[in-house]
Structure formats: structure tokens, C-alpha cells
Echinoderm microtubule associated protein like 5
Amino acid sequence: VDKIDWSTWTCVLGSSVEGIWPLINEVTEVTAACLSNDTKVLATGDDLGYVKLFRYPVKGKYAKFKRYVAHSTHVTNVRWTHDDSLLVTVGGSDTCLMIWAHEPEGHREFKQCDSEESDIESEDDGGYDSDVTRENEITYTIKALSTNMRPMTGVKPHLQLKEPSVDERPPVSRALPQPEKLQTNNVGKKKRPIEDLVLELVFGYRGNDCRNNVHYLNEGTDIIYHTASVGIVLNLTTSCQSFYIEHSDDILCLTINQHPKFPNVVATGQVGDTGDMSATSPSIHVWDAMTKQTLSVLRCFHSGGVCSVSFSATGKLLLSVGLDPEHTVTIWKWQEGAKVASRVGHTQRIFVAEFRPDSDTHFVSVGIKHVRFWTLAGRALLSKKGVLSSIEDARMQTMLSVAFGANNLTFTGTISGDVCVWKEHILVRIVAKAHTGPVFTMYTTLRDGLIVTGGKERPSKEGGALKLWDQELKRCRAFRLETGQVIDCVRSVCRGKGKILVGTRNAEIIEVGEKNAACNILVNGHMDGPIWGLGTHPSRDVFLSAAEDGTVRLWDIPEKKMLNKVNLGHPARTIAYSPEGDMVAIGMKNGEFIILLVVSLKIWGKKRDRRSPIQDIRFSPNSRYLAVGSTESAVDFYDLTYGPQLNRINCCRDIPSFVMQMDFSADSCYVQISTGSYKRLAYEVPSGKQVTEQSQIDRITWATWTSVLGDEVVGIWSRNTDKADVTCACVSHSGLNIVTGDDFGMVKLLDFPCPEKFAKHKRFMGHSAHLTNVRFTNGDRYVVSAGGDDRSLFVWRCVHAPH
């Protein structure tokens, strides 16, 4: 039968049309089919009113298609005209006959379109803002496609080793020669290996490119937010965090279900690759914030990622918006995992789409120079653009946020700081300069109708970046956030009982009292990344971080908070404590380094002998020398006993590439240097003379080990590191384990030493791409990892093996 050349094809069965039948769980029948006269395109109609186009032949299950919504139910028949230019479809219960123009592939005829940009393209869009521009232009890459963070050259370690021949193999043992590789006298006599890592704390919040992503839970006793690929629930009484860690890539949006039938139900959308329903395509997770149980995973066609999610009034429907070129808008029945309707949202970026708080069928989307008012009608999505003509001189601006009022009022925040008031889809009023800068976020309080707005503003006596308005946006009260920033930029607002929860672009989450306007900072984080430097205290569970934002921050693990921060005025690259913990050395991107006294955080001394970034900085174990490694392929030595003028006494020369990591020997006589050409070298201190004898290097006991290179750690390099690298490592104080970080954002735990290739390991996910640094705290109680792309610090509790 398959070999017969049929004159026409209107059959819905057969091996050549197998792919037209949908997934089993879609209760639908394909009712009609018709093959075009050129035998290239098959059109079908089904019970749900969809008209679909497939490439013919449609072999294999679940073929790709283009889908068109028009008929209310049951398409009873479809036919092509003689030249395939038109498709005719007939509806059942709607008794309609529809005619569709068929555009051949590659052909795109220009048509006058009913879109916002056609009449305002030449107009000014109401102002420019760097944050809006950055957000509009950003493109997200999945972690699996990460490439080298550093410009490495040469052959990777696991490809350098040749397997020893039978003659070369040692006759009895392959154990590493004594003395020990690592000094381990600071841990106690009973050394126990680490079996596992458990995520205990996360310092950070994604506020730079997200919005509306901080919410109250449980009547205000908890808050929920996210960073990297982790959803975080913070109890405000105990400061304890709990985590949802089922996402495979960065979370971009978060919303909570407001309906009492679905308490603590949360939806989060993540970054993805192509929308082909594969493992790397974007997904939305619906989960319980208290139990962390996943209720539903919605794999979607939003290539690039999901940028906005919103629950309907009954809580049964979920609205999502994609970062794909069409900025697709999709409605889901999330409990069933079923897609109800989907449609092209707009040619320009959509920032937010939200259901009206009293509706399951009406929602509003806003974005670059547009606002659209949508209606869900059965399985069809209908939209109207906002009409400006009722207000003289009104022009369409870039819209950034949306809120709702009674009597079908909608409020949209603009890039210029105005708020537009719409009745249905018609503009009726403009609240001029509600904020002096962009209105990034708005929140509708369901119980009393009051509106909260958050914008970008310089703090002043009269106003602030946070405002609480009446139901009609006519009167307001402004709050100052007391962050100490020159400009406050609010990205998320949420209102509880007498409190307003605020998320800022600078990675702070602040609770503001409505009556007394008192500000309480709940969450701190680095505002710009990557975080490069990480230094753990020699005797306490506190640590320092240094980042591209020019700040050094002191974090306390038992207290679960940031203790202090210093603004250095320049991006910082590396940081280290002195052996006694009384001084801190910081290497800067501009080639300068600074030494601070820990007690006062006052500068003890600073020097700039290089013009390129300082990559690593280390105190010698005897506290006499400071080693400073830079991208100028040099390590400089300074004798601290000479005082704070910091004169260079020597340097290591002939280093084949930039310096990545450095470690001193236990006796302070040697330093090992990892370089950007995958070579590990040893030098004498302070002469800077290279040690070339391998037997001499093998006899050195190191005070610390942070190198990713060397025969002892070949096993940390995995097979799939063609384009990405192991970026950082740290051996525990016991000398029994090593933790590593890589360009894929993974933390790995291995035994040390691990001289065999592809060593057995445990993997821990959560970070975005590019882990920049990792360290054990004193006594090996915790591991701290620093994120590159996520600007976040993760604290992992070490689970030790039983005695």
C-alpha cells in the first residue's frame, strides 16, 4: 500500500500520517486531513477546533506542527484549493466556513499590522534607562553550554598524562611518597573523611534582572525568593533557610498562588535552551513552599527561558511568558500539566503578564512600548492593544509593571516614572512622575485594594523608591529605604499586615514598617559579580568575600548574616586572611593590593606594582611574607616585617601564563603556582628561584592546597571539560578530601589525593554557571562556594564519616 502513488490524500490513518496524532493524554480525535497538491504540506482538523499544518510525509510519533485556533469545536473538514494558495476549513457546531491564506515557506509578504510600533516607531519612548536596556538586551545561556571563564591555553591535565607502561609501574605500591602533601596539624588527632555536603545557607538574591520575586508566606512569618537555581524560604523568626533545589538551571521568575485552596503553592520558571521539549528546554515548576514537594513540572516551548508567571483568581490556571523571539504567552492547567492555550505575545520583549486578581479569563501583559489586554475564550487567546487616543499628547511608553483596581481599572508603570490608568483597554488618566525613574514593580493588595509601587529614585526628604497608594492612585505615602545607596532601585514589592517587603537591584531584601517606616534588612548580597575572592577565618566560622562590585563583605555562618562591608571603590579579585586572623589582604582588578586590619577595617598598607588584575594573594604561614600573583605572569614577594610601606623584595619570573592559584609550603620556604597554561610550578621564597627537580617538589609539605593542577589531583578533571574547566579547588584541613568548582556551576566532593583519572565524586547543584572559588572553613565544618554569574555565596555543611 505504501508504494502506491495516491492522487489525493484525505485519510487520517496510515504510516505516512502517523505523526498527526497527538500525545495519548490529549483527549482528541483528528477528524479531517488534506494533502496539498504539491504533496509538501498536510493540513488537519480535530475535535478541539485546531487547524494544524505538518510537513508531509508525517512519519514517526508526535511530529512538529504549526497550529491555528479559529473554530469553537470540531473541525469537520479541510481542503486545499487548486494552487495551494488557500485552505478551506468547515466547523461543526459553529457552522462556519473559514478561508486561510497559505504562505509558502520563506515567503513573508509585508502587511499593515495592528501593532503598537507601527504608529510610534519614530517617537521617543519616554526616556532611556540603563537597567531597562540591560534587561531587554540580556540573553541567557544554559549551564550545559558554559565555556571557559578564564582564557586558558595548553593541554588539559587529564589529557597530558600518559599511562605508565608495565615496565614503569612500581612493583608493589602506587602510594604517594611521604612526607605528607598537606600540613594537617590543625584539625585534631581523629581525622574523619567527609561523606556528604548539605546546603545550609545562601547569601544572595536575584534582583538585578528579575522582578516581583519576593513574597510573604504564612501570614508574614516566612518569605520566599530565589537566586541561581535555588528557591529559598526564609523564616523571619529563626533566620533558618530551607531550599527547593529541583531546578536544573537559573530561576528567572517566581509567583505564589493567592487562592486559599492552594496555600503556599509556588510557581518558578527557569532558563532553557531550545523549546523542543528536551531536557534542556525551559520548564516551570509548581511546588509546595513548606514541604518542597514538586506538584507539577510544565515543559514549555519558550526557548530561552520563562520570564513571567502568574496564577489566576481560582488558582487553577497558570500564565507564563517566554523569552523566545515571539515572546509566547501560554495558559496552563498546572494540576494536570496540560496546556490550555498559547499565542504569540508580541514582537518586542514582554516584562510582566498578570491575571486580574478577580478573573480566570482576563490578564494584561506589558513590555517594550506596548500594553495588551487579553481574554481567554475557550482555547483561544484574544487581545486588544491599549488605546491612547482619549488623552491628548499621550504616547506609548515602555511599560514595566502592572497592578489592578476595582471597576476594571488597570495601572501600568512606565520607564519615565509615570503610571498609566486604564479603564478596560482605554487610557483614562496619567499619574505623572509617580516616581522620578522607571516604575519597575507594582503590587495589588487584595484585602483593601491599596497599591504599592517600587521605582528607581534618589532618596530625598519628600520621596523614595517605595510608595503606598490609595485604590485609585491619587494619594500616596513615600518611604525611604535607608540603604546608603546614591540611587535606590526597587525590583519587587509585596504587602503583608502592616509591613511591606522590598527586593532591590542591589540584592537586598528589606522589610519596611508601614506605621513607623522602619527598615529592617533581611537579606544581603553582592550587587554585581562575579564574586572572585573568598577567605575563611583561621579559627572562627566567619568568612570574607570580594567581588566585582568593589565591596568586601564579612559573613557570619552561625549568626546567618552579613556582619560588615567595606566599599573599596574598585573591583576586587582576591582576598586572604593572615594566619592569626588579624589582617586581611585584598587584590584588586587594577593591579593594586590593600592590607586591612580586621578589628577596625582600617587600611594598614597598600601598594600598586602591577597594572593588571591581581589573581591570588597569600600570607606565608609564618606571617612574614605576602605573595601577590597577577595576570602579568608574575608573583611578587613583600616582607611584612619592614612595615606598611610594602617594598617588593623579589618576584618569580618566567611563569608561562597568568597566575590562577598559589599555596605556600608549611615551612614558608616555597610557593606552588597554578598557571593559565595548565602547568603547576614551584618557586623558592623569597628568592623567586624556580624549583625544577620533581623529587624535591615531591618532598614539600604544603600549608594549603587550592591548585587545580598536579598529579595529585588529576582525578578532579572530568571527561566533558572540552570547552569548560575546573576553576577552583580546596583541600580540607584534614587532608582527606578536596572540593572543586567548575564552569558548569557544580560543586564536587572527592577524596584527596586523587591521582587516578576521572575519580569517583559526589556532585552538588544550585549555582549558576562559573563557580569562581571554594573554601573549607576552620575545622572542616563547612564549605563555602562563590558564584560567578549568580553573585551568591553558598554555605554547605560537611557530613563527616562516623568514627
Remarks:
- The first helix runs from residue 117 to 120.
- Residues 123 and 395 are 8 Å apart (CA to CA).
